[in-house]
């Protein structure tokens, strides 16, 4: 029987014998085909987002007799209310990124004669990433604008597509992974205010350590597997494994409770 992949719930196929394995050339060709298919999915998401944006702006549900965007999507496409609004989140996030990029560069994004495809941005961003940053798309746009301006000011002009793509992806990553600010409740006690500032600094530095731990042990690994990966690293840098795992959990969740009884 096959084994079950961790965290996915899928049954893996039994390992093939050596005689059934493809050669190196065939494996590379299959990998290239798989990469192309993934790229096609990303482009489809971007094109879909552009068309969703246009349809919502035109309020297409009204001429068709629907009461709302959600009811229109349910009747016409059979998707749930939640998915209908997730599509809008993706469209709004991509629109903000598009505006920031086109304002900060001279790149032409026209790929064919389809207006929707012209507006579609291929930055390799997943639908989940775009949904996550939709509420903070203004922050993403400002970050992109500032970083593109810095590159241009430093003489890197004209900016090429890979550079812009990297800037966009990093900005989305930074906004997604920034831990939420703690509630501001100024204390009349100077000692308590100073202690809170120290705790905030410690939490910020721990979050940065957690990000580094995630580089070695990605978020899909459970704690037991992550501990196996991180133990040699922690021994080398003199960091306690429990603290490293807590920092990793904090970087994943952004919730300071992940640090209780360890770092904090």
Structure in words:
- This protein is mainly alpha-helical and 264 residues long.
- It has two domains: 27-177, no CATH class; 190-259, no CATH class.
- The protein has helices at residues 24-57, 69-77, 81-104, 115-119, 127-133, 137-153, 161-177, 190-216, 223-237, 241-253.
- Helix 3 (81-104) packs across helix 5 (127-133).
- The longest helix has 34 residues, at 24-57.
- The chain is globular and about 65 Å long.
In short:
This protein has 264 residues and is mainly alpha-helical. It has helices at residues 24-57, 69-77, 81-104, 115-119, 127-133, 137-153, 161-177, 190-216, 223-237, 241-253.
Major sheet size, sense and barrel closure = none
Number of helices: 10
- Overall spatial form: globular
Average residue-wise pLDDT: 76
Tell me the total number of β-strands.
Answer: 0
Q: How many domain modules?
A: 2
Strand content: under 5%
End-to-end Cα distance, whole Å, is 45 Å
* Rg computed from alpha carbons, rounded to a whole number of angstroms: 23 Å
Give the low-confidence spans. 1-12, 108-120
**What's the SSE pattern?**
HHHHHHHHHH
The chain-level structural class is: mainly alpha
Helix share, percent: 55-70%
Note the main attributes of this structure.
disordered N terminus, 264 residues, mainly alpha, single chain, 64% helix
Topology of helices and strands:
Elements: H1 24-57, H2 69-77, H3 81-104, H4 115-119, H5 127-133, H6 137-153, H7 161-177, H8 190-216, H9 223-237, H10 241-253
Helix pairs in contact: 1-3, 2-3, 3-5, 3-6, 5-7, 6-7, 8-10
């Amino acid at each position: 029987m096959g084994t079950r992949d961790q965290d996915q719930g899928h049954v893996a196929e039994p390992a093939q014998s050596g005689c059934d394995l493809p050669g190196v050339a065939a494996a590379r060709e299959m990998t290239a085909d798989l990469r192309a298919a993934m790229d096609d999915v990303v482009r489809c998401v971007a094109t879909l987002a552009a068309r969703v944006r246009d349809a919502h702006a035109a309020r297409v549900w009204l001429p068709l007799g629907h009461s709302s965007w959600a009811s229109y999507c349910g009747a016409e496409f059979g998707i749930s209310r939640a998915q209908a609004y997730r599509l809008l989140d993706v469209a709004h996030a991509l629109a903000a990124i598009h505006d920031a990029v086109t304002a900060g560069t001279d790149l032409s994004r026209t790929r064919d004669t389809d207006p929707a495809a012209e507006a579609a941005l291929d930055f390799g961003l997943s639908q989940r990433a775009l949904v996550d940053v939709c509420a903070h798309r203004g922050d993403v746009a400002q970050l992109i604008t500032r970083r593109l301006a810095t590159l241009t000011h430093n003489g890197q002009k004209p900016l090429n597509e890979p550079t812009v793509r990297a800037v966009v992806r990093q900005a989305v990553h930074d906004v997604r992974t920034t831990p939420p600010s703690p509630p501001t409740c100024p204390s009349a006690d100077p000692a308590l205010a100073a202690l809170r500032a120290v705790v905030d600094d410690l939490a910020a530095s721990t979050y940065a350590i957690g990000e580094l731990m995630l580089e070695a042990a990605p978020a899909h690994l459970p704690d037991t597997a992550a501990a196996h990966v991180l133990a040699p690293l922690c021994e080398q840098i003199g960091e306690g494994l429990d603290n490293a795992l807590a920092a990793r959990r904090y970087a994943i969740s952004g919730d300071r409770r992940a640090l209780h009884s360890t770092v904090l």
